[in-house]
Amino acid sequence: MANANKAKGTRWESAVRDFLKEGRCLDHARRIAQTGTLDIGDIHMEPFVIQAKNQKSFDLAGWVSDAEVQAERAGMPYGVAVVKAPRKPTERGYVVMSLETFRSLAAEFLGGDIE
Questions:
Q1: pLDDT on residue 71
Q2: What's the CATH number for 4-110?
Q3: What's the pTM value of the predicted model, to 2 decimals?
Q4: Higher pLDDT residue, 105 or 5?
Q5: What's the rounded Cα separation, in Å, for the pair 8 and 25?
Q6: How far apart are CA 112 and CA 92, in angstroms?
């Protein structure tokens, strides 16, 4: 790859996918081919769309917003950003989501209702 930042991003996407596949996620985590202007995320692991980010400066609000839009385009309920922690291994990365997404996940996991 000619673009060093694109190569760095691709390595991070692959590392996240591989880490997820090592756990109970098995073959559910897969990298998605880029779709141009109607991006549907970097990794799909139903019901999640993951926007993988490996950048020096953080834009958490922007990344989460992008992930939520991408999830909607992909027809999945949850969009999250997975952010590389500086100088840390893949498993120490951060999963960032809106409070609304967290509440929906908690209700689903705990068997509650959301109005």
A1: 94
A2: 3.40.1350
A3: 0.86
A4: 105
A5: 24
A6: 30
